[in-house]
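for the writeup, i need someone to sanity check this before i put it in the appendix. the sequnce is what the collaborator sent (i think, or maybe the updated version? ugh). structure was predicted straight from it, no edits. if anything looks off just tell me and ill rerun, i have time this weekend
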Amino acid sequence: MARKKSKTKKQLSSRQNSSLENIADRALQEDSSASPFRAPTTSQASILQITRQEHHSGPLPSSSELRGYANIDSSIPGRIIEMTEREQKHRHELETKDAEHQRAFIDQSLQAQTKFISRGQQFGLGLGLVSMGG
């Protein structure tokens, strides 16, 4: 299960803010030469969006999400963990049963092949004895 989070609000230091504004201004100046539209002036407000993405994969939510659930109701993280443990136990039981059924099928197939081979050998012996005696 993949989860993504986006955070767009973050306080920047004045140095970081001015650096980002300089980069944005340079990008606008470079783009204005190719664009038929008028580029915004420096007196106009610039919009800068910073996106942070996190990726988490696994049977449980990330720790920050569990803390968020705990803020809603303190019993939710425990219930989520218990549910995950029950699901894992159930999955292991199913896999064990499947492996047992496969083993039983292989054993039955081997027994049937052994009987078939044994009967063929017995028939061959009988045919050989009959042909020698007759």
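The longest strand covers residues 2-7. Residues 1-9 have pLDDT under 50 and may be disordered.
thx in advance!!
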